Amino acid sequence: MKKTMKILSLAMALLVSASGIALATPSTQIWIPSTDVQAFGTAHLGLDSYIRTSTKTAADQESRIRDNSFDLGLTVGVLPFEKLQMEVGIDYLVYGNGYDDHPVYFNAKLGTPEDSLFKYSPAIAVGGYGFGTNADSDSAFRTDNNIVYGLVAKTLPVVGRLSAGYYLGNSATLNDEKGANDNHGVLLSWDRTLSEISDKLWAAVDYQGADNAFGALSFGVSWAFSKNVSVIFGYDIYNKKATGGSSTFTTQVDINFP
Hints:
The protein is mainly beta. The protein contains two helices and twelve strands. The protein has one domain: Porin (Beta Barrel), CATH 2.40.160. It has helices at residues 2-17, 241-244, and strands at residues 43-52, 69-77, 85-94, 104-112, 123-132, 144-156, 160-168, 184-193, 201-208, 216-224, 229-238, 248-257. Strands 1-2-3-4-5-6-7-8-9-10-11-12 form a twelve-stranded antiparallel barrel.
């Protein structure tokens, strides 16, 4: 209960400060970043949960595999340009293990929308996320994943939007199950508004390569309850259970201000 109240208090503090400082994971599909960028002067509050499909065994209790996790994040658009946009954000993540000693993470993204550079040009985005505050090389729970990435995306008639890119992270924290460096990989996604059913219904599938803790195949749908409020219901299958843990059900509540 105390932890829940702490998270809610942080949410209120961030909302109050949003008009004065650019402060969540970047704008995403289900799991990976998207080329979307928060509009200037608007704030996005995200409340995400990732619930494991199986519990840890006794042997897992001291491991660095994430347990059920909860993310409270705020992202703000900071550039007043139509063809060049930027967002910055902060996350408060609860993992249920030693990572909770340093729960704050930062992110940023710079991007251009489709058709902004020339007719039929793709959307382009570069950014970074997972910038944690614990870089202690002696700690078993370092949080400085420091992932940087680049993405391009294009919306095709009927098909929907296709995105592709690549990421690179901290070699000290992004490793495979044997502890070998595995800190880079592809980013791929498809998403589309299912207007044949409803303009409020959206679906996506995305993939992050590599056998580190971030590698995963995810899919889900979203329903927009209003112009500014939507909820994603998704499922994440991690590339390696030894590093990412068992699969998770995810719900992601997205609220935009104003």
